[in-house]
Amino acid sequence: MATSRTAAVTAPEILGRKHGETPVVMVTAYDAPSARVVDAAGVDMILVGDSVAMVVLGYADTLQVTTEDMAHHVGAVARTKPSALVVGDLPWLSYHVSRDETVRNAATLVRAGAGAVKLEGGRKRLDAVSAILDAEIPVMGHIGLTPQSIHALGGFKVQGKQLDAARGLVEDAIALAEAGCFAIVLECVPDGVARMITDSIEVPTIGIGAGRHCDGQVLVYHDLLGFAAPGHRIPKFVRQYATQEIEASEAVSRFVDDVRGGRFPASDETYHMADQMLDALGLYGAAST
Ligand code: KIV
Fold it and tell me: Which of 60, 109, 125, 225 could form a disulfide linkage to 88, CB 3.0–4.6 angstroms apart?
């Protein structure tokens, strides 16, 4: 288990890790138990990602969650008082309509307990980034495969494979870094592109499916612990450190068998009454063992 910290991690501290020796680690969490697990493991940042829509709420994409949904999950994570920085993911359409709405939505996540927010997109989103930064809220960028653009991208596909697209991603990253983002997620891009971006900006890059030349890595909690719906294709970049869906199912099966076999509950899992009470109720000898 990782050593515990005395103070919570801040966005400026993450920015200061750009040329550090130890890569930055971020893992998603969506509720109190998952937040406790990842914080106890010593992650630097907990991302309350809009991936909650897919891995927890059973939707086929991330477009179904609202700012209120995200605030609900940010609150659950923040109430565990983690040492890690809590990053709240701004959902689709929460930063696309106007500067006012963007700032209010970012503030909703901060009031729920986030210390920073994340949004998807490059140069197109500079206005949203500057509006949020103006309200003194740290912003994490996210480029490459941006799941909120799934319909525009035509599916969950690796991005930046062609020269123009790769150059476009480098320009997006430079623009986000210059605008003041404290870190940038690079999702599903070839490692050469991730390396070029990482070398081009003074802001840590956090990769997911972007190879090892990033300043940090992020994985989705349910992916790394092996919670996968039957038939779900596990992306190549996921390393599963456990098979918890199988283990949890086996544990619940044992409970089912114990109940059906009369082995649960046992006497020491039962509240008993004093014998006099049983007697008074006319139940003497009935059930005190
Ligand atoms: O929502 C999420 O979990 C994310 C990560 C994949 C970076 O955005």
Answer: 109
For residue 265, say if its preceding peptide bond is cis, omega within 30 degrees of 0: yes
Question: 10 CB contacts (<8 Å, ≥6 apart)?
Answer: 85, 115
Pocket test for ligand 1, best of 51, 64, 86 (most atoms within 8 A of CB): 51
DSSP secondary structure of 135-174:
TT--EEEEEES-GGGHHHHTSS-----SHHHHHHHHHHHH
- Number of residues in the chain: 289
pLDDT in tens, 176-227: 999 999 999 999 999 999 999 999 999 999 999 999 999 999 999 999 999 9
What residue's CA is closest to ligand 1, atom 8?
49
What residues act catalytically?
187
Joined together, the tokens standing for residue 187 give 């999702």
Tell me the CA end-to-end span of the chain in Å, nearest whole number.
41
